[in-house]
Amino acid sequence: MTITQIEGKGGLPMINVSNEHAEALISVYAGQVLSFTPKGAADVLFVSDKAYYAAGKAIKGGVPICWPWFGADPEGKGRPAHGFMRNRMWEVWGSSENADGSSSVTLGVESSPETLAIWPHAFKLAMEITVGKTLQLALVTHNTGDAAFSITQAMHTYFSVGDIAQTRVTGLEGTQYIDKAAGAGGAIKQQDGAVGIAAEVDRVYLDVPAALAIVDGALNRSIRITSSGNKTAVVWNPWAEIAASMADLQDDDYTRFVCVETTNAVDDVVEVPAGGEFRLVAEYAV
Fold this sequence. Notes:
mainly beta; 9-stranded antiparallel beta sheet; Beta-galactosidase, Chain A, domain 5; 8-stranded antiparallel beta sheet; single chain
């Protein structure tokens, strides 16, 4: 078998995947992919060396899941930012070895009295992960209740780069974005050329295309991001001051990653009908 359950850092249950195409590490806690390393290549994902691996804490790096809301509590009830999925235990719902040499793992969570007390809707949430020549991710929301509900969500992916100063995000040229960086006040601006990062960047891009890329000059590689189910994408890098204030980031970690997030954010709200499902999909290729 190329899919092995192991005890990871902090005693958390994890899954190692190793096949002819790539290796990956998946945390069952938080339903979070932590590593994707195509054969002969460097890891596509970044995880902080100071990340927390403990119950109730989010793991800083990989692909954290923001669900059933992205950003601050939409109802202002004091619930945690980015929902309640990135710091709870998930379950392994299935795994398979595929004919093309790839490996698939499905993790999931069902609503419980605990989740219903936080968010009063019945659901099943699945994270479908396929590790092959590319990393394919599908976040699948099933509404198991008898009334529609609305969500915002994200795959808050941390991509590893050799040097942020030599990194560009392409595919967003000419796109409007909401600038949420310090002092920007949420102004709507238009992207001029590729996205370069030389200060704090916290932007929600609107009406985004299906294909984006991270061009990494230092590692001489390009990471292609293909998505569906989303109209928005977030580009985030905390830069020096904010990184230094985060206990689970090293002071200079901001030079080694960029978050390009596949999102349903701001006005890109998804309504899931009773008995229905919604799929947010992303694929990462080097």
